[in-house]
Design brief:
Blueprint lengths: L1 E7 L2 E6 L10 E10 L1 H9 L8 E2 L3 E9 L11 E4 L2 E2 L5 H4 L10 E2 L11 E4 L1 H6 L2 E3 L6 H4 L2 H13 L8 E4 L3 H12 L5 E4 L3 H7 L6 E3 L6 H8 L5 E6 L4 H10 E9 L15 H5 L3 E4 L5 H12 L10 E4 L4 H10 L4 E5 L1
Helix pairs in contact: 1-12, 5-6, 5-11
The chain binds zinc ion (2 copies).
Length: about 350
Amino acid sequence: MLAAVLEDIGKITLKEINTPLCGEGEVLVKVEACGVCRTDMKCFTRGQRDLKMPRVLGHEITGTAVKTGKEVKEIREGDRLQVSPGITCGECEYCLQGQDNLCNHLQIMGFNYDGGFAQYLLVPARGVKRGILNKIPSHITFEEAAMTEPLACSLNMQESLEVQKGDTVLIFGGGRLGILNARLARSRGAGPIILVEPLEKRIAGAKNLGFDYCINPLKTDALKEVMNITRNKGVDVVIPCCPDPRAFNSGLHMAAKRGRFGFFSGLAWEEPCLSFDLNLIHYKEIKMIGGYGCSINHNKRTLEILSSRKLEIKDIPIRAINLEEIEKGLKMVEDMSELAVTISF
Ligand SMILES: [Zn+2]
Ligand SMILES: [Zn+2]
């Protein structure tokens, strides 16, 4: 099969490798669509602590089951599937509480196992058993269903933040995750939803995709604008969907008293770092909550939300590329020239 193999940092090679054999309890999936995300880009350009190379990247995977091993009952050949990428142990205290994105023995497809930047993907028996394969209904395309995982990460964050009707939500960053978070907040009844984004082209792209207000902090006093919109209260919920520490700091100033702050994107500390006014958390009683990845159940429920059309993503422009164009696709993610990039087979 053809696979894009990350052999070393900055070196991704398109080559024929053996199609994995499907053993007992395993499922062989023909990949149909796989999202290309910033995490893949980071692995490619900088590597990652837990990433062992050579590795086939790609964790936003959908495909068709082409072979099922002995003992596999729930999945049949021909099933259209979304793959929840985290393979969990099912036994640690976090797994037992349903918070398996925090599993002590978490292994991730496209990270610890080969992922979706290849024609076929072998789903390990432990994953099949834990229910990481979700069936995609026929009215949802593989490309749409490939958005399940990033949207499930947003669902994890917003459930922890208890985003609900009446909440004013501030999102930093009008990229894919910013837009998905806006969509999700809206579907939960929140609004108005405010975007703060310094890139004009991103504002232009995001404007009609779910925000009530778009503010460019380089052109106007963003804090003043936010205070005007919220009648000097500040926002109920802040979700930075970008790695810039400056957004983190501004968000603390823009949050209302008793506001909820979602630590959703990891911070890039190599960015110019300002001193944080962490005392704002104390004085304003801000709730600071982390959100990392998504559980198996978040994936399942997110696919249900997409299937019910309660949350529509059809109008989000997805740039489809071939597997052969993977390096170009990673570059598009890096220079932010496309909102969403997906390998389509
Ligand atoms: Zn991702
Ligand atoms: Zn576990």
